[in-house]
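task queued by scheduler; priority normal; single chain, no ligands, no partner chains; default sampling; output format set to structure tokens
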Amino acid sequence: MRMAHRDLWKRDWVFTLRQVWKEMLLDDVFGASAQLAYYFLLGFFPFLFFILVLVGSMPVSGLVERTVSYTMGLLAQVMPAEALEGIDEILENIVVRTRHLLGERRIRLLSISLPALVVASNGMRAIMVTLNRAWSVREGRSLLQRYILALALTLALAIIVILATLVSSQADYLSSWIATHWGASWATGMYLGIQLAAVGALIFILELIYHLAPNVRRPWHWITPGSIFGVLLWLAGTKFFKMYVSRFGQYDAMYASLGAVVVFLLWLYIAGLAILVGGEINAELERSAGLIPSPAVPAPATFDAAGHDTQVRAATVARSRASGAG
């Protein structure tokens, strides 16, 4: 049954948000967000390394430096200054390592960059499990299928970042040219257009995650309330968190040299929470529209959202208790 796009928006939003809150507590979204923050922290720099290897392989001079500059500029807009202190040094080390590797043979370069992509995809696999809980479906896809899907989604995110870098690297030149030939108002319009395109790219990648990550058969929508709310929650949460850290946060006093890492981890927690809340909203809207989620790949009744056999787990726990009692 295909759901009309407008059906997602015709809801009693007060009741819907109450139900979303209940589902968030049942699915332990806050605990899952902490798990995502851990995986994001482990995968963030391998992901950047993979991107730099890709852009360094392109026949465009200075693209690695522009990518790093764009990344730091983007992070400076959304992250507190305290969290950027240690990241700058790490990025410099990644750039040095990337330049060294770009002189290697392509096969050698691929063998080093692919493990970085695998590490970066850990967070995507964690998102898949939590979204399965949001849509109340069991995981029926094989472990290999889940790995391939997580790698594909992570690669899609990398491609979007690279395209954004290419566009932003030409933005200053285009802005100057437009201001000279067409006027400042057109240049301002182009700047606003780039900002809207960046928000649109975030909404698109969220829609792609919500469509493919959970093991559920659902129609494709270019834009849904969940993706919009997820992006707005991430942007607003980042803004308020940045204000809080700059004015009231004393993480350096409490954590000393680890203060920047703690702030960075909290920012990643906000990002994970925004993704999962958006998924919970879409799942609740579809349930309220009378749609029962249909698994894309049917799973045995004993499987859970992560694809684990609960009978095997129960038998293992029983044996361990019996051996402990003995």
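post-processing summary
- The two ends are 55 Å apart (CA to CA).
- The chain has twelve helices and no strands.
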